Amino acid sequence: MRILSVYASAHGSTAEVARFIADVWRGRGIDPEVADVGSVHSLEGYNAYALGSAIHNGLWLPEMATFVRRSRAALSGRLAFLWLTCLRAIEPGGYAYVTNNYLPNMLSGSLSFHRIGIFAGRIDMATISQDEAWTLTFRYDGSRDASTLGGDHRDWSAIRAWAERVADDLRIVSGQGPRQS
Fold first, then answer.
1. For an engineered disulfide with 113, which of 45, 68, 82, 130 has Cβ 3.0 to 4.6 Å away?
2. In whole angstroms, what separates CA 145 from the centre of its chain?
């Protein structure tokens, strides 16, 4: 089964997650093609699609939003998965916050996802602009200095578990059934 995994990454963290997920799928017999959203010119030849984006200011990155608008008709009714990297995922209740407050702004009725994953990302304070640092502080009500938010918050076990569930979903759709432990 071939899956196109398209990602939008601002500073490289989301790209690393995309490659990690693809490696998990390869280990499960799935044939992924991983591509930066700006390099995708065709959606032909795939059985499924995975979209991954960093979240900035409560929305996926503009290049992913453009890709989704441009590809909505081609993706509609197709097997598609969505995963997001968002700092809010490190907060207590962060998954629910993203689900209830960010996802409705990003999803449309014509595009649905079989499975959605929400993961924390990595913030390298040396690579973000002063505006991004200010926005981070503002989004957290100023209660934490932006420099305290830096670090790698990605939970690789949770990302692996999500990727394995997607691999099982793909096996079921292809008639192979879930992988036996």
1. 82
2. 26
